[in-house]
Amino acid sequence: MEAEAALREQAQGCGELGSPLYAALLERLADDLAAGGPTARVLRGHEHDPGPSALALRLLGSVHRLVLERRAGALAAYWPSVGGTWDDADGTAAVLDLLAREPDLVAEWLDRPPQTNEVGRAAALVGALRHLPVAARLPVRLVELGSSGGLNLLADRLPLPEGAWRGPTPAPWPGLRLVDPVGCDPHPVDVRTTQGRLTLTAYVWADQTDRLERLRHALDLAQRHPVDVRRSSARELLAEVEPREGAVTVVWHSVVWQYLDEAERRDVTARIDDLAARASASAPVAHVAMEPRRRHPDAPREMLVTLRCWPGDGAEQVLGVAAPHGVPVVWERESPSP
Ligand SMILES: C[S@@+](CC[C@H](N)C(=O)[O-])C[C@H]1O[C@@H](n2cnc3c(N)ncnc32)[C@H](O)[C@@H]1O
What we know:
single chain, alpha/beta
């Protein structure tokens, strides 16, 4: 996709997903690119990057990281993530000034894919766990595929954001406890390092302060409660998993399926079926997902929260629909009451 179109398309997406700052700024940067300004210099060589490579988010992630590192001069005054106040005209001028002064520094992060770990998605996971059959309410052995920094492995410790759930509230599970949660990612982000924390923070949109606050809280929590994220693919991690006596094994993933190739999707599905076939009342197995899907071929894509569990028929239940960054989740069915 042409870079200018990519910036404008992302501007629209950011507007729809609640980031007026990025929506306005990306439109201005697209204008500047078209006029051959500093944006054109920074994006040289990326004019034809493929659409899914999210050029606009790589660019703004790079700018945001310089602000967070206090290397962006006057721009900090306009960046809400560090206490500034956005102003369309002056803020854009400050970004363009940064691009003009430090084109190589900004371009440094254009060659890496945006990496995020959306802590809000834990609200979908926790709500889905509360939909497990009462008989399966055992300690939860959580197995996460595509964990990024692994912050959602702390789901039982993360506070539920205000207004996180709409529709029928899932019945409480007071003793909910994760045991030995484990995750995997071919490109894990190490949240014990400054660089890892900077990466995850920089790709959050700078005016989405709720999202940033959730992330920062989870990053702090992860310093005290280290997460176990293996450098491996979903297929490799699942191959090591077995149903466990006295625990419910929950395989979970959010916004990961699109990254698996056909062969890996088939293997992961087959492995979950295999675990399901060996599930028992004392070692149940469940599959929870939050993935963009269509309910039927003509339906729009929605972030469906789904659950299957075994022993039982393992029929998939659509529990609700989440916002792309996790919250709010609109639940569609009652959960079983203990
Ligand atoms: C959009 S992120 C979602 C991260 C996390 N699940 C969340 O919701 O915040 C997708 C993640 O999938 C990972 N990924 C890509 N290929 C994968 C694979 N074959 N197996 C497991 N994870 C993979 C990426 O590295 C990336 O961290």
